[in-house]
Amino acid sequence: MMITVQEALNQVYAQAKPLAVEEIDLLQTRGRVLAKTIIADRDFPPFNRATMDGIAINTSAFEQGRREFSVEAIQPAGHPQLELQNRDHCIEVMTGAMLPVGCNAVIRYEDILLENQVAQVQLDTVIAYQNVHLQGADEKEGQTLVEPGTKITPAIIAIAASVGLNKLSVYQLPKVAVCSTGDELVAITEKPEPHQIRQSNSYMLIAGLAQEVITANRYHLPDEPKLMVEQLTGLIENYDVLLFSGAVSKGKFDFLPQVLQQLNMHTLFHSIAQRPGKPLLFGKFDNGVLAFGFPGNPVSTWICYQIYFRAWLYSSLNIKLPVVQAAISKTITFKPALIHHVLVKLINQDGKMIATPVNTSTSGDMVNLMQAEGYLSLPAEQDSFEAGTLFNVQLFQ
């Protein structure tokens, strides 16, 4: 029975479940999803910080007409805070250093003449706390810096380091196996015969999973049901999710659906009113392992992975898929019996995002697939969409 895209997504979301939490070394967390709040252990910045190399003064002396300031001392970064002893003097100060006590502004070296330990200011105006990053201006001690459910970036790693965290709590990632199917496939190191092709979809899926920081294992299933059963029995016991490419359609050698059924998989759906990817298979085993059976054509495999597997993954991680709104660059017309997923590339044109359809001639068009940065879905209720129409584009990264 063919179901709608939304009905299929509802089935996928229903199988999402909160993932366990683990604590790992800080430098291993990039791309993972934070599971515990990061809190400021002190003010950010923790002191009034000079943002320029120059001299620190008390502006009251400048306001009273003083333009020459004798240098009392030098305040380097990383040294204890000095104190200005004479309001009519100055202290040289380096970028990142504490603003000396008694000073309330920093004047750049570029704006003074410094000779014989006397700084002559070349400015007409000096404002209090210019070139100073005030203590607590970014965040106060005890405030939340990063919320759970955030993908960890290098900047977040820096924040965690700044509050003294050498480990972070993150959500565990599922164990995933990627299975290619079909006797027509050979290893990428082999020279294929005229009737053969090299494996590529499994590599594409492995690379896609790597973007989610999931290290998956790759397997190949022959077109022989008995051998498929033997190999899959072990995989079902050792993985959380199985991703298949191919062998899910109506062909005489598409044995995967019956093999999975023989292994007691409960089929949740096996046909979606969409293009590409109509014969997508989704099911669940008694032990909770999920199976996504993608059609074998590269574009179909990639689109279905993006729409359905990533929907399940991101829902389990309680984060949102990356989406931008963009206007289509040209009118698109199609037969509206099915929802049509369109690969697009994006450009920013005068502050507006423009989505240009990628011309994939068939669902097996790998060469043009590499141009795509995301996809948009055209609803089946109409057959033409004018240039400039706005759509949500789900990004591939």
Distance between the termini: 32 Å
Strand order of the largest sheet: 7-4-6-5-9-8
- Give the radius of gyration: 30 Å
Instruction: Please outline the major beta sheet.
Output: 6 strands, mixed
CATH top-level class of the largest domain: Alpha Beta
Flag low-confidence runs: none
Helical fraction? 10-25%
Q: Structural class, judged by helices and strands? A: alpha/beta
Number of helices: 8
What would the average pLDDT be, to the nearest integer? 93
CATH topology of the largest domain: Molybdenum Cofactor Biosythetic Enzyme, Chain A
Binned strand content:
25-35%
CATH architecture of the largest domain: 3-Layer(aba) Sandwich
* Total strands: 28
Number of domains: 4
* CATH superfamily grouping of the largest domain: MoaB/Mog-like domain
Q: What is the 3D shape?
A: elongated
Structural features, described:
The chain has about 400 residues and is α/β, with parallel strands linked by helices. It has four domains: about 5-20 and about 175-315, Molybdenum Cofactor Biosythetic Enzyme, Chain A, CATH 3.40.980.10; about 30-45 and about 140-170, Molybdopterin biosynthesis moea protein, domain 2, CATH 3.90.105; about 50-135, Molybdopterin biosynthesis moeA protein, domain 3; about 325-390, MoeA, C-terminal, domain IV (Beta-clip, Beta Barrel), CATH 2.40.340. The protein is built from eight helices and 28 strands. The chain has helices at about 5-15, 60-65, 155-160, 200-210, 225-240, 255-260, 300-315, 365-370; strands at about 20-25, 40, 50, 55, 70-75, 90-95, 105-110, 110-115, 120, 130-135, 145, 165-170, 175-180, 185, 195-200, 215-220, 240-245, 265-270, 275, 280-285, 290-295, 325-330, 330-335, 340-350, 350-355, 375-380, 385, 390-395. A hairpin with a 2-residue loop joins strand 8 (about 110-115) and strand 9 (about 120). The radius of gyration is 30 Å and the shape is elongated. The relative contact order is 0.13. The mean pLDDT is about 95.
